[in-house]
Write a sequence for this structure.
């Protein structure tokens, strides 16, 4: 009887180890393969894979923008309202700055607070120019500094599943926020 118990225990351990390994492997197209360092609005430094396990809604903005970024921020807030409240703890609404020189962690924290985006599911990120450009390339997002205080940029909101795979992109301002939130709800429910 002891021998049977030992064999069953060994099979269980072996199965658990193989299952853990399969769960840890990232899909080839995951954004979590990016190894750049980022800072959030709380001045915590980490790599993007720290966000793994949550559905992500991502937009690239800069906080001093007076043209389209306020519209993108409004779209993100509309998306937040359409995500099931019980799913928000499994979701990160991520705003990545394209102006890391001015958008310091302290500035991002102030922007988050004054914009009513200081709940735990809101994540504001900044990095160096190389990492920001690499991330923009992954999103097929283009931006360019056109003056000391202004950027020209694409308006894209992207949704990633909890393994970091792109599952939806919407371009423009005034997007179908219901469609985006629906995709987030599906991703969280399926995880």
């Amino acid at each position: 009887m002891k021998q049977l118990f030992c064999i069953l225990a060994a099979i269980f351990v072996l199965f658990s180890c193989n299952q853990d390994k399969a769960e840890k492997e990232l899909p080839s197209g995951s954004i979590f393969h990016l190894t750049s360092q980022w800072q959030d609005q709380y001045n915590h430094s980490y790599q993007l894979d720290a966000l793994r396990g949550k559905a992500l809604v991502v937009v690239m903005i800069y906080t001093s923008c007076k043209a389209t970024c306020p519209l993108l921020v409004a779209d993100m807030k509309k998306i937040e309202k359409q995500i099931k409240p019980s799913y928000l703890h499994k979701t990160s609404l991520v705003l990545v700055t394209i102006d890391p020189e001015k958008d310091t962690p302290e500035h991002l924290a102030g922007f988050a607070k004054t914009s009513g985006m200081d709940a735990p599911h809101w994540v504001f990120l900044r990095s160096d120019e190389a990492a920001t450009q690499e991330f923009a390339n992954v999103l097929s997002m283009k931006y360019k500094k056109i003056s000391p205080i202004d950027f020209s940029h694409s308006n894209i909101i992207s949704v990633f599943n909890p393994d970091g795979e792109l599952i939806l992109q919407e371009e423009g301002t005034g997007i179908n926020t219901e469609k985006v939130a629906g995709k987030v709800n599906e991703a969280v429910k399926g995880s």
